[in-house]
Amino acid sequence: MDILGKLNSLVEKYRDIEARLQDPNLETAQMIALSKEHSGLQEIVDAAMDYTKKLADLESAKASLADPDLKSLAQEEIASLNHELPQLQEKLKIMLIPRDPADDKNVILEIRSGTGGEEAALFAGDLLRMYERYATHKGFRFELMELSETGIGGVKEAVALISGHQVFARMKFESGVHRVQRVPQTEASGRIHTSAATVAVLPEAEEIDVVIDEKDLRIDTFRAGGAGGQHVNKTESAIRITHMPSGIVVECQEERSQIRNKEKAFKRLRAHLYEMQRRKAEEERSSSRQAQVGSGDRSERIRTYNFPQSRVSDHRVNLTLYKLDEMMAGLALDEFVDALTVSDQLEKLAALE
Description:
The N and C termini lie close together (5 Å). A hairpin with a 4-residue loop joins β10 (311-314) and β11. By secondary structure, the protein is of the alpha+beta class. It has an eight-stranded mixed beta sheet. The chain has helices spanning 3-21, 28-64, 71-96, 117-138, 167-171, 231-234, 258-285, 324-328, 333-352, and strands spanning 107-113, 141-149, 155-163, 176-182, 193-203, 217-222, 238-243, 248-252, 301-306, 311-314, 319-321. α2 (28-64) runs antiparallel to α3. The protein is flat and about 85 Å long.
């Protein structure tokens, strides 16, 4: 990788943006967009300036070796710089990896029970609570959008909106099949059962991210089911939206207001369509997408939660932690997220090089 060439290009771009921001005729929208881009480049430009200065200092110290009076000091400086420069270079390589434009977005989290009947539904409920606790731990806002429960406290399907700083960057590797191994509450003989739940993590899309043609939609209203008071039987407040070109169907019946349900349903639809666009772009950029960590392929088992052994294993990075209680409390999840983030960065770095 031509690090210096890439860094010089970014510094030139940064300075060009600075010059454009001085234009008094700049429109507000352009000003906001350029300011955001300028701010996004600030960290890497600062690191680039530090790197080029240290390279210049190294050349200067090498030139000082010829002076007997400066040789000792020069040798010390050279040793120090030879230690610092490779570390800074690795840091810069990571910073040069193209950022996922969705990293700053909020998340629509969808959890569904999978194979395993009632036990799978109970596990889906456990995952929902785990992510809610994780959101609280990280200072994110957790808002339940849709919840379909079973008779004994399990969850058939749950949808939540998680908002905060870089939520998608922290949550995007959670998409996939989560497997649980434990003795179900309904099991009298004490046998360990294996069940599963599916998690989908979708970046929340703004209206400008996805263009939806009203002609492509079929919108149905129906009466909400389950608990909810007298309005359940009297008003058709629940909304079902079908996007006919893609076949995506979303529903919302959590709110009493049909308008609010429609807003939430559209939010979910935009997220699904935006994710389709992102995946298509990823497939076009990389023929080896299946092998990439964090591809979000929900057909693959990504993690196993073994209750008898208090063990959680992530099969993508071969990381096992004996911290099941902390995991379900939302406290140990960051250890997996950090490992997956590093693995993803190394994959992308290898692709760049």
